[in-house]
Amino acid sequence: MDANKRAVGDAIKFLKHHHGSPKILVKQIRNLGDTLHLTPIIHHYRLKFPNAAIAFVVGQWYHNVHEHNPHINGLFLADHNATPQQRLALWPLVHNAKGIDIKVIASIFPFGEVHSRNKWCHETIADQYLYNGGIPDCRPAGGRKLIVKVTDHDRKFASGVLGRKGVEKLVVFEFVSYSKPPVWNKNKFALLARELKKHNIACATIAAAQEPLINGTIDLRGITWRQTVATLSQSIAMVGVGSGLTMLAAAATPQPRIIELGIANSVSMKGCGYAPSISIQSPTVEKVKRHILEVAG
Description:
The chain is of the alpha/beta class. It is built from 13 helices and 10 strands.
C-alpha cells in the first residue's frame, strides 16, 4: 500500500475507534493554500458538532501549519508529491469507507460540472471550497477565519530574527518565481526594498528554500510555516502574489497589511472574506510604497 492509501486507511481506522461523534474525514493532500481553505470548514463542523471526531489527511509538507489546530483530532500525512492519478485513486477509498458520517474532499477542478450547475454559490475561490465541503450556503459557522495556531517557540523565533537585525518595522515579500508570468521580477522587489530602507523599514524574503533571495532583504527562506505566521504577525505589511504564503498572512494575529499584486478580487484575501487586503492591478513600486508608508505611519 502506498503512503497515500496508508494515510487514508489510518485516518479511517482512527475515526472508527474514536469515541467522538459524528466521525468526519477531511482530505487535501496538495498545495498549502488549498489546505488552508479547509480550516474554516473544519472550524464549522467543530462548532456544529462539539463532540465530533475529525481526521485530516494532508500532505506531509503542510502538516506543520495544521498540527496544533485545536479543532483537529487526528492528522495523517500523505505524499504531497502524489500524482493526479494517485490522488484520484483515493476517492473510492474515501467514498466507500463505512462508519464515516461526513467526508470532505475539497477541490475545484474535479467539481467543474457541479460548479457549472451552481454558479450562484461560487463567486470566489473560497466559495468553491466551502461548497465542496458540504456547506452550500457558503457561510460557515465561525466565519471565514483561517486558523494557524503558533507556539511560543515560533513567536520566540520571530522575535529573535527581528531582534538580531535590529528591526523595528518589517515588510515581508512573497516572491514566487514559478508564477506564470511573475507579476514582478526580483529587480522590482529589490527596488522597493531600497526605497523602504530610506524610511527605516526593513524587508524580508519569505519563500521555500529553493526560491531566490531578493537583494537587500533579510533571508527567511525555508523557515517553517508556523514560523512564517509568527513573523508575519510582527510585520507591518506583506507584499504577495496570492499563493499559500499570502494566506498565511491572513491567518496571522495580528494581521499585517496585505498588499496583493495583480490579484483578481475573486481570489484576493478580501474577496474570499479572509482578511482586509489591497489588490493593486498593474502595480508600480511607487503605488506599493505609498500603501506601505501609510500603514507605517
